[in-house]
């Protein structure tokens, strides 16, 4: 399944990681030792490079092609920019096994980058002169594996709350929620016969439910690796209360990434979503954003962070590797990141570009502020795949069958 088919499903890739891991092969280009080039390190004339990405919708794919072609022209490189549809992870892994990876590839940082880095097919960008200056540590870490930089992040994604300003005004809500209790109160106040207070996904299988649930778990002080943590209990109880109050439809267990349609159509006042909705021109109402509320006033709001980084394939030709690294560094320029953010709805990786993004799109502040202290799900490795399913099972059991959050989590953890 391609997670880049639609904006609403971009972050579901981790659900396919188990299959992807099974497709890894032992033969790889990482066993090749680059030969040193006697040419000028900055003279890349005559070098021909291929770039892959799989974000197959506009304006993103057109922008990327423009960035790379302009950078290639500046560097004297010939570049072929290809956008792949379909199962991109499998395409990458098969290319790695046949030693035919493209020179440059866009990689998500939760599964694709660590999988390829572990196979030794990605070049260490640090050794090629690439630095992470201007990136928050949380962002720079997304491109690392075993303390080496294998991908230069150019954009990140996290989650925040979107709300319908008119419905908040009708309900008399003037202070935006900062805790779970305040979110519950706001959802209840905006619930009517015509619309629910909040819309969240609860379906299993497509990755949406766990992606939306994770920020609540983190913001209640939970450790994602500990299924029965107090933070996980608080997050489950949040959903249980919203359903019990009638603020969240019982049908939410049938909603996936398309659950945001409830909010976009005016059938819900509040939802959680990613930065791509910042550039959605189809909305028929004025919206606002605010960060994921903390569990209590003693907790801190937190989110999971997904990155997109460009990696360079290991090559026998050192000059080719250096040319690819130079191309990536050029693509990652601040102006390119700002342009992608404003037009495409991604959070820039560079802190300076994030600031510029907020200046142009004030609602982006709710996404930019949490980045510095965000959690990297890739730190859980392949364990995160199993953990996600446990949380979804517990959430459904608690809200549908009425069991306590503690019991639901314990059963899911043992199952």
Automatic annotation (TrEMBL):
InterPro entries from the UniProt entry: SBP (IPR006059)
SUPFAM superfamilies the record matches: Periplasmic binding protein-like II (SSF53850)
Keyword field contains Transport: yes
Record field: transmembrane: none
PANTHER family named in the record: MALTOSE-BINDING PERIPLASMIC PROTEIN, MALTOSE_MALTODEXTRIN-BINDING PERIPLASMIC PROTEIN
Annotated GO biological process: maltodextrin transmembrane transport; maltose transport
Pfam families: SBP_bac_8 (PF13416)
Assigned keywords, A-Z: Signal, Transport
Signal peptide from the UniProt entry: 1-22
Name the record gives this protein: Carbohydrate ABC transporter substrate-binding protein (CUT1 family)
Top-level taxon in the UniProt lineage: Bacteria
A molecular-function term among this protein's GO annotations: maltose binding
Cellular component, GO, one term: ATP-binding cassette (ABC) transporter complex, substrate-binding subunit-containing
Family of this protein: Belongs to the bacterial solute-binding protein 1 family.
């Amino acid at each position: 399944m391609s997670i880049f088919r639609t904006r609403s499903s971009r972050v579901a890739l981790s659900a396919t990681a188990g299959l992807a891991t099974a497709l890894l092969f032992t033969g790889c280009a990482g066993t090749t030792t680059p030969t040193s080039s006697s040419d000028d390190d900055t003279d890349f004339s005559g070098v021909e490079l291929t770039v892959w990405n799989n974000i197959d919708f506009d304006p993103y794919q057109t922008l990327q092609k423009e960035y790379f072609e302009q950078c290639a022209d500046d560097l004297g490189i010939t570049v072929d920019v290809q956008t792949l549809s379909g199962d991109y992870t499998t395409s990458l892994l098969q290319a790695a096994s046949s030693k035919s990876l493209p020179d440059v590839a866009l990689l998500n940082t939760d599964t694709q980058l660590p999988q390829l880095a572990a196979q030794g097919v990605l070049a260490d960008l640090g050794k090629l002169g690439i630095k992470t200056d201007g990136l928050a540590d949380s962002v720079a870490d997304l491109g690392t594996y075993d303390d080496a930089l294998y991908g230069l992040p150019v954009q990140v994604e996290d989650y925040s709350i979107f709300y319908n300003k008119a419905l908040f005004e009708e309900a008399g809500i003037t202070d935006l929620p900062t805790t779970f209790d305040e979110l519950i109160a706001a959802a209840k106040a905006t619930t009517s016969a015509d619309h629910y207070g909040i819309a969240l996904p609860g379906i299993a299988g497509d990755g949406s439910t766990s992606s939306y649930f994770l920020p609540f778990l983190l913001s209640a002080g939970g450790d994602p690796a500990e299924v029965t943590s107090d933070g996980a209990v608080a997050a489950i109880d949040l959903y249980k209360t919203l359903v019990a109050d009638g603020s969240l439809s019982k049908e939410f267990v049938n909603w996936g990434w398309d659950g945001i349609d409830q909010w976009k159509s005016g059938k819900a006042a509040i939802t959680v979503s990613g930065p791509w909705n910042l550039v959605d021109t189809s909305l028929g109402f004025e919206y606002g954003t605010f960060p994921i509320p903390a569990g209590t006033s003693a907790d801190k709001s937190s989110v999971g962070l997904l990155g997109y980084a460009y990696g360079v394939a290991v090559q026998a030709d050192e000059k080719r590797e250096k040319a690819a690294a130079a191309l990536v560094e050029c693509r990652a320029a601040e102006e390119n990141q700002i342009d992608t953010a404003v037009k495409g709805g991604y959070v820039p990786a560079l802190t300076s570009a994030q600031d510029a993004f907020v200046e142009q799109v004030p609602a982006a502040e709710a996404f930019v502020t949490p980045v510095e202290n965000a959690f990297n799900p890739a730190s859980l490795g392949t364990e995160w795949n199993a953990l996600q399913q446990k949380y979804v099972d517990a959430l459904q059991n608690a809200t549908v069958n009425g069991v306590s959050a503690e019991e639901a989590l314990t059963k899911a953890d043992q199952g």
